[in-house]
Amino acid sequence: MTANLAPEESMPPEAIVEKHAPQPVLRLTEPQREALTELFHWAYGAGGGVAFGMLPARVRGFPGTGVAYGLLIWLAFELGIGPLLGIDRPKRRPVLWRIALALDHVLYGLVVAGRLAPEPAVQVPVRRCGRRR
Predict the structure, then answer these.
(1) Rounded Cα distance, 3 and 110, in Å
(2) Is the pTM value of this prediction over 0.85?
């Protein structure tokens, strides 16, 4: 969705593939390279989901943790990973583009936190007094 707001700018997975992919990847056809780039993005997101799952349960259970985590993933790329990889990001971006990108990552955080699915009903074991079976 966000890519459509600023089509002249490559998304982070595209920029990484363009700059750091080995030659065999760069020789793929455009549709093949796009599919591989999308898989790379999904793998990065899945890795972030695994990392979220490794947080302590009491941290994961806080209602705002998923939203904060999604935004943190975005900021980690923008301020750390991207510059380390030499991925130049435009200094000026449309406000709508920034809002959409933030919302993309909020949605990601909600998904990895499991906030879009209903909470499972907790069954409390019943202790019975009296005779044992």
Answers:
(1) 20
(2) no
pLDDT digits (tens, 9 = 90+) for 94-106: 778 778 888 999 9
Task: Please give the residue range of the domain that contains residue 91.
Answer: 2-112
The number of CA neighbours under 13 Å toward the Cβ of 103 is 10
Provide the number of structural domains found in the chain. Answer: 1
User: What is the Cα Rg of the chain in Å?
Assistant: 20
Q: What tens digit of pLDDT does each residue of 28-41 get?
A: 999 999 899 899 88
Which residue carries 């583009």 as its tokens?
Answer: 97
Residue corresponding to tokens 């030499």 = 86
> What tokens were used for 119?
């909470």
* Residue 132, domain member (yes or no): no
Residues 6+ apart with CB under 8 A from 106: 67, 70, 71
pLDDT > 70? residue 9: no
Q: Is residue 13 part of a domain?
A: yes
The tokens for 56 are 């302590």
